[in-house]
Amino acid sequence: LTTQSPPAADDGAGATPARIDEVNRAAAELVCSAQPVLVDIRPARDVVPGLDDTTILTSGAPLPWDEYTGGQRTAVIGGALFEGLASDADEADARLRSGEIRVAGCHDFGCVGSLAGITTASMPVLVVEDAGRGTRGYCTLFEGRSPSRLNYGVYNHEVRTTLLYLERVVAPLLSDAVRRTGGVPLRLIIRRALHMGDELHSRNTAGSLLFSRELFPAFVALAREGRYEVDEVIEYMSSGDYFFLRASMAAAKVTMDGIAGTEGSTLVTAMALSCREFAIRVAGLGDEWFRGPLPHMEGGSLFDGFGPDDIEFMGGESPITETAGLGGFAQAAAFPLQAYQGGTAERMVELNLEMYDITVAEHTEFKIPYLGYRGVPVGIDIRRVVESGITPIMDIGIAGRGGGQIGAGAFRAPMECFTAALDAFERRTPEAAAPAASSV
Amino acid sequence: LTTQSPPAADDGAGATPARIDEVNRAAAELVCSAQPVLVDIRPARDVVPGLDDTTILTSGAPLPWDEYTGGQRTAVIGGALFEGLASDADEADARLRSGEIRVAGCHDFGCVGSLAGITTASMPVLVVEDAGRGTRGYCTLFEGRSPSRLNYGVYNHEVRTTLLYLERVVAPLLSDAVRRTGGVPLRLIIRRALHMGDELHSRNTAGSLLFSRELFPAFVALAREGRYEVDEVIEYMSSGDYFFLRASMAAAKVTMDGIAGTEGSTLVTAMALSCREFAIRVAGLGDEWFRGPLPHMEGGSLFDGFGPDDIEFMGGESPITETAGLGGFAQAAAFPLQAYQGGTAERMVELNLEMYDITVAEHTEFKIPYLGYRGVPVGIDIRRVVESGITPIMDIGIAGRGGGQIGAGAFRAPMECFTAALDAFERRTPEAAAPAASSV
Question: I need a labelling partner for A253 at 20 to 30 A (CA). Which of A82, A269, B48, B374 fits?
Answer without folding.
Answer: A82
